Fold:
Amino acid sequence: MTSAPRNAIVLNTTVLSNFAHVQRVELLETLPRLVTVPAVRTELEDGVETHSYLTNALTALDTDIPVAELSPQAQTLEATFLERLDPGEAQAVAVAEAVDGTVITDDGDARTTAIQRDIRLTGSIGLLVRFVESDLISAAAADTYLKRWIDEAGFHSPARDFETFLTD
Structure:
């Protein structure tokens, strides 16, 4: 394990799972200062038996996506967040706050906590927008991924068509 760098981008399980579902984990690897947390590894390991595509995400951990150890400050924050968040979300939000970073989560409670604590955040759809705007994928590919997440993985999205999220 490694220490999370200042201004780290911290992935939680759902986002990593979404990109693994469409076999595009490598897109996440383009993000600067990207890390995840030990609880995310545990959640992926626990889910791989019923969701074999999670193997793609597990393979990327450590080699391409570092798993960051929790600093004492992050451990203290995690203990507070565990009152209302699952372990993966609690650790991801705690690490993001401790290093003045960004948490990447689709979990409603984790997003609310991040907003309340003034932690930068985005989610799976925000990343799709970033990847389209950076010309890493086409808008059509992003639309396909979003629809697969909704139809196959039960992803809750405020809109079904990706184009809704693009600004002129």
Summary: The mean pLDDT is 95. Residues 131 and 137 are 6 Å apart (CA to CA). The longest strand covers residues 9-11.
